[in-house]
Amino acid sequence: MATLSELEPQVLALPERDRADLAARLLSSLPPVLDEEDEGVAEALRREREAELDPAACISLEEFERGVARLRGR
Q: What is the rounded CA–CA span in Å between residue 45 and residue 52?
């Protein structure tokens, strides 16, 4: 069986449509990453409920981006 390091250059040389088809087939062969049991999904649902109960507690995307930029020293 070929290794990933052997296959990668061949796969990347395929036409875009073939790479996209292969990627879709590979992804569909994997189990779902997120489900209701996932901690990240549970946290997102919790935060969504909080936002619905108190919209004033939320910040806009622009405010979030400014905060991230400030933390990064920009």
A: 11
